[in-house]
Amino acid sequence: MFTMFKRVRIGRLFFGSFAAFIAVLLLVTSWISYSLTSRELASNTANYQQDLLNELNKRLVIQLNSIEQMSLAASRNIDIIEYDPLESDLFERKRRKQDLESLLASITYSTTMVQSIYLYTERPFLPDSQGPIRVYTLQKVREEDWFPDIQNNDSAWIKERTIQTNKGPLNVIGYARKLYNNSGIYYGMLMLNVKSSEIQNLIRGETEGRSRLLFDASGRKIASIGDQSLQVDELDKLKVLNAKSGSTHLSAKQQSDSLLVWSKSPSNWMLVEVTPWKNIVGGSIRLALILLTVGLSAIIIGFFVTFFISRQFTKPIKLLLNFMSKLPERGFVTDLPQDYTNEFGNLFNGYRKQMERIEELLDSLKAQHKRQREAEIQALQAMINPHFLYNTLDQLNWLAIDSGQDKISKILSLMGKMFRIGLSNGETLIPIADEITHVECYLQIQQIRWGDRLSFCIHIDESARELFIPRLTLQPFIENAIIHGFHGRKKGELQVSVQLINQDIQFKIWDDGVGLRPDWNQPKVRKTGGYGVRNVKERIEAYFGLPYGVRMSSSKGNGTLVMVLLPQIQYKEQVEEQYYVENTHH
């Protein structure tokens, strides 16, 4: 049997190792598939974007060059017109002013890209306020934030900015050109404001949802479209974009990886497209996940099939081993399966017959042990009544000398109740309500002696009154508190509480007496004091065992606290069944 079980376990171990190897192989295959396909997708995407950017760059350069040519032509014509605001001939000065305005306005009317033209000169004039021309003093150029871009150049593209128009704010991209006369003297500046939307349309082309950037020959960003968070830093790009065109996988520190594709025109204008790497390799990830899912599904299905087949062999063996490892209980062998007709059926039948013979022997031992323990418990129970009677009669003798017949009558009445409960027709277990009545009678007798100097209170959970407790469990602790705890004191206080805790019940007895002596737990030479406590402890140990029992604690000035922990007993037979079953097993 064990050889067969061992073979099955070896088979399972082999399959588990094989499955683990296949899983690792599947992971490696999925990773290789992802790496190859993602690399191929990135290459195809880069080639496609490269062709598209080259085409867009050509169109863009044509438009930008046309703007530059317009600016150059306008600068020469302005020089030809030779407008002089100090001209003495008013008619000639007005004519040349009109010619200059018409020249500049014709540029804006000739193309939709140019929104307006700014002219900066030493002696500005007032143009038509509704027209596209604005004339400013040359000194104002130095106040513009874009002046550093053209300060050392004759012409330059100015990055996107916002200007005020008759229709409100407008984003424009400027092209600035310095004006020189025939003698080479710098006398003004011409600024063509190109609509940003027109440049962005050229960059966008016929595609949507792309992130692209336009840089001039000096590497300054002029315009952009798309997700700004994907646009890389200029310095980082300039380190990478050193070829006419190309692509690279860019790993950014503070954002996700990107594919960078760029195209350079002959005039060194650069158009760059940035694509999130996750958008490119998304198909590769899905393919790898499909392969991984299919492979893992096959492994899981194979595992369950193997598990089902091996279970047909291991289930009866495990079942028999489980029965053999646990402590047998009465009738438990009937739980063994009886529908096996193979060698497992023979094993079960043989074990069942063996257990039946063991059960007969256990029944015999249990009956013998029960009779023995009954005799021991009854002997312990009978020993406490004479002890209690002795102490009570001693108190009666003292009261008969010191008090009248009324008190003696009351004492005798209380004692009658106590003896009736104490005897309880020979029962070893009594309701907690009777035990508490016995305690109250004893305390009332003591209160006749002490008077107002003795105070006591009893708190009991009402749901605990009908539960059972070994007879005379609490009284010895009450007696110790009064005889020993209050010895030599003028007054005393005593509290008794009964509380249910989960499946147990806890009794607390507290007094404010002198407390326990250091040797309180040592055997006494005299037979008074401590005898009843030992009796209670032995009975609880005989009935229930651990964790139930008595705990006593004392501290100077705080009296003594006794805690008795017992199980909740609903009916008297419960104790006998529980006690004898547990002790028989042990």
Automatic annotation (TrEMBL):
GO CC, any one term: membrane
Membrane-crossing segments per the record: 287-309
A Pfam family of this chain: His_kinase
Keyword rRNA processing part of the UniProt annotation: no
SUPFAM superfamilies named among the record's database cross-references: ATPase domain of HSP90 chaperone/DNA topoisomerase II/histidine kinase
KW Translocase (keyword) present: no
Name of protein: Sensor histidine kinase
